[in-house]
User: What shape does this take?
Amino acid sequence: MATRNPTACYLLLTICLNFLVIMAKANPTEVSDVGFKNFVQSVNDIEAKLGKQLHGKDENSVICVPSAQILLGLLYAGAGGQTASELESLFGVDNKQLETLANFQKFTSHLEVPEIKIANTAYVAKDLELKKEFVEKGQKYFNVTVSQLDFTKKAEAAKTINSWVESKTEKLIKDLIKADDLSDDAKLVLLNAIYFKGKWAHPFKHHDTRDADFYLTKDKTIKVKQMAQTSRFQYAEDADYKYLIMPYKGSKLSMLIILPKDHETFEKKDISKANLSSLKFEEFRVQVQLPKFKIESTIDWIDILKEKIPTAFDGRANLQGISDTKLLVSKMIQKAFIKVDEEGTEAAAATAMMMCLMSAPYPQEDPKRFIVDRPFYYALRVDYGSTHAHLFQGAVRKPIV
Assistant: This one.
């Protein structure tokens, strides 16, 4: 029986609300609007399927489902049999590989705005021969660059991989992997990087930031740096949560802040079951207080996905569309970083004021209060017409700067 050589599949995600990276360019393939809308919905459905696993348990979290999905899409380009079927079930598609890959291409090309860049690459062992069709699909649909690497020289291989990571993340992520992370039979490393730089459409002013109490529990508080402003925002609420959409300047991206109305809601209710599509957002004058925060996370996606696509990670893996050599996924790691503060907003403030002056005057009604002084959720959203995908998301239990 042929020996199964594991594929070391590393997923890198770097996020910073003032800085964030990804790079992938390709000419979009025509796909139906309905098919693409269903595909975008599948990104959100994966969040629902994975539930609270995405948000961690007792710590701050940041995670990017689409970034993981991009690498899974690349894996799907070389999958067959039960492994392909499991991926199709996860994606919400039905045995339509080329259409699904075209949707991936359209999904990433839609993100090609100045604020976002996407990069995908593959490092291949010198003794592994990739199939021509897989390489062509990777280049066409994911703009993957392919390079050979000698994994037997582990220290040098790790240095090469980490150098690529640093170059695509403005050196925000260093030492993603260690030499010991590369197993003796590693044959292929897939990498995805995301970089984002966005300015608030309604920036916070540094001099309005104050020390304030943040309630970790009903009875326990810490001091945080609380930013403050009163502006017009899209706002909604239901029985359990308040919702606020904070747009980025000149962009299809916005940050959705989800504030539980009490601590019990945050601890006991599953936010993934909240029906965001049924909310009726309206524009109000809102008094916002939001803590500055910075989060770094390392996520083992195999732990998250092992029940959804089990054959990809064991001896049953069917990845023969990648190579005639028997392969399986041995690691899938996501590194994430997010930082929210006032940086990069001063230049935007003057522009925002000018735009406000050109708008029709609004009546000065009493503002809604959106005081984020307890644990909350956030999501960086991308606008796909009438559909929204959560590009980055997480939970803040204890703001740290």
Notes: Confidence is low (pLDDT under 50) at residues 1-31, 343-362. Residues 33-50 form the longest helix (18 residues).
